[in-house]
Amino acid sequence: MLLRDTRVRKLLLLLCSVALGAMAWQLTAWIVSSVRGVDFPSPLATLRHLCGLLAGVGLFDHSVYRHVADSLWRWLFGFVIAVAGGVGYGLLAGHSNALGRLTLPLVHALQLIPGLAWIPVALLLFGLGEQSTVCIIALTTFPAIAISVVAGVRQVDATYVRAARMLGAGKKALFIRVLVPGSVPHILSGLRIGAGNAWRVLLAAEMVVGSGTGLGYSIIQARWTLDYASAFACLLVIVVIGLAFEVLVLRRVEKWTLERWQLFEEHRRT
After folding, report:
1. Which pLDDT score, from 0 to 100, does residue 5 have?
2. By C-alpha distance, which of 121, 29, 130 is closest to 75?
3. 203 exposed, middle or buried (CB, 10 Å; 0-12, 13-18, 19+)?
């Protein structure tokens, strides 16, 4: 009963938040339309247009499903590359003080570079197309994940490390059974931050690199054609996908991982 009450309360808070956002949006549409005489898409008009797109109305020579699928594929490909590199590097650099001291300043420097600043580099490496978009995503996402993982490894309780050594654990066992599990909360935090960074830079890159499909491409095309209803519909799709990934994927993976490694207390302290 208590669990159901909690879920009902969360649902009500969510609905109230959505209603508040819709009211602010509608008020903005009224003000802009009245003051500037510009046809600012309202929430209802945007939903109608989105329903039309979902029903099969074309969106810049393709269906909205094609644009969403291509964006998700580019995002997933770049994110996986960044996760593999960031987690691998972070575990090694966190475990090896020499490697960390030598390379971590470079990673911090990479984190200071905005995602769109990588566009010239990606174009020189791969030219126009999907490969450049994936490259930008990976380069932007890697530092956040790597730094979080390094911090996680270095903040593992020294008591656990000493206990493992007293029990005869070698370097390999210490790394696999103590350092990796102990850094899981930080790894999950890095993945969450990296996923958000990757999603944002994907859309920006699609606007500039010119891949021909994707939600970012659709938004910039809507700007040139003054089809603002399509741009707002794409923004709704972006928000829904981001929230769905956060709730249905990241939170569930986080919960399962923490239960698997029995790290609820450590996660709360972080």
Report:
1. 66
2. 130
3. buried
C-alpha 74: how far from its chain's center?
Answer: 12
Which pTM does this prediction carry? 0.79
Sign of CA dihedral 124, 115, 192, 145: positive
Instruction: Report the greatest alpha carbon distance in the chain.
Output: 76
DSSP state of 212: S
Rounded distance, CA 147 to CA 128, Å?
A: 30
Distance CA 51, CA 184 (A): 41
Mean pLDDT by 10 residues, the chain (270 residues): 65 82 87 82 88 86 88 91 90 83 90 87 84 90 90 71 62 65 76 84 82 84 85 88 78 68 48
DSSP character string of 71-106: HHHHHHHHHHHHHHHHHHHHHHHHH-HHHHHHHHHH
